[in-house]
Amino acid sequence: MLNPKKLQLSYKRYCKNFVDGIKFEDVEKRYLNSQSKITHIVELNDVEKDHILLIRLGSIESHNFSKWKRDVLVNHEKKSDELKKIMMVIFHQCMAQSLYKSRYPKMFVEYTFRDAIMTLIHFTMFGWEKEEDILFNFIVDHFDSRWMNANDLNKHTWFLLELYLQFRNKTIFGTNQNLHKAVKEQFKKMDLEYGLIPEELNVYTEVLKHWETPQLDEIKTLIDKMSVFHSILASELGESIEFGDFGYGFYPYEILFLLFVRKKRRLPIPEEFDDFLMNTPEAKMIISDPEPYPEWDPLLKLIDGFYRKNYPDYIPNRYGELFQN
């Protein structure tokens, strides 16, 4: 059962973390330190040490992340520019990581399954179809490998991926129904790890059955259930694995994506909400359809240019310029 007081206290801690906990000045210092290392490798065209560029993408992501939190969570601005830059970095982590599969087969993977799916559905909401298609193909091509690690327990991630597949009329392992169960069975047959994949998706199972309902009252009831499920877990900030993190714990992007796909299908959606979660600054952030591409982070641009120059098999080389208005 949802405890409103506990939820609000967790939210205060969530916000305070980006004021008193993570200091923007400290993140900026790490970013500038990465700038010198990245620039040095690029200027020397040092392909022997270029795996450092992949690792340093994390500093760029952290920098954009801190700026997004400062803009939206602290200053209550509604712009999504820094969030878009975060998603661009995760995309490039995926693209760059694939270059090291042979050279460093046991290298730490810089992104998670959840990161990849979160980025995919944001590209969809942003209207960035070219980049969305590239990322989806990457996910499918690596789905049964450690480079995607789909042995993931986050129920909302499986919900988002299945909803995406149904919305785009695509499949993974030949299906877009009960995807988590199909993947679990397939991984069993392939002798891959599957123990973390959930048996059931709770409220999301009901939503997936009825997300195309023409009835406004029905979808409003389902969204309310989703919000309660999310809020209960966010109340356990720092303890719950799903929605208990300080990064995206109070950002209901799974609900925002549901609203997006219904709007694209010209199905009715609620115009306003009276619950706590859907009235946070992150939930109120404006995402236009389509969203213009943001200005590139200069360090990300350097890294992308390096990989394009030195690796003909770098996936973006197949598609020309990306993230360009």
Search tags:
325 residues, mainly alpha, 2 domains, globular
Notes on the protein architecture:
This protein has 325 residues and is mainly α. The protein has two domains: 18-111 and 295-324, no CATH class; 131-286, no CATH class. Helices cover 57% and strands 0% of the residues. It contains twelve helices and no strands. It has helices at 4-21, 24-44, 51-74, 81-97, 113-126, 129-141, 155-168, 179-189, 203-210, 216-234, 253-264, 298-310. Helix 2 packs antiparallel against helix 3 (51-74) and helix 7 packs parallel to helix 11 (253-264). The radius of gyration is 20 Å and the shape is globular. The model has no long low-confidence stretch (mean pLDDT 97).
How do you describe this structure in short?
The protein has 325 residues and is mostly helical. 57% of the residues lie in helices and 0% in strands. The termini are far apart.
Mean pLDDT: 97
Shape: globular
Strand content: under 5%
Give the strand tally: 0
How many domains? The number is: 2
Which helices and strands appear, and what pairs or packs with what?
Blueprint: H1 4-21, H2 24-44, H3 51-74, H4 81-97, H5 113-126, H6 129-141, H7 155-168, H8 179-189, H9 203-210, H10 216-234, H11 253-264, H12 298-310
Helix pairs in contact: 2-3, 2-12, 3-4, 4-5, 5-6, 5-7, 5-11, 7-11, 9-10
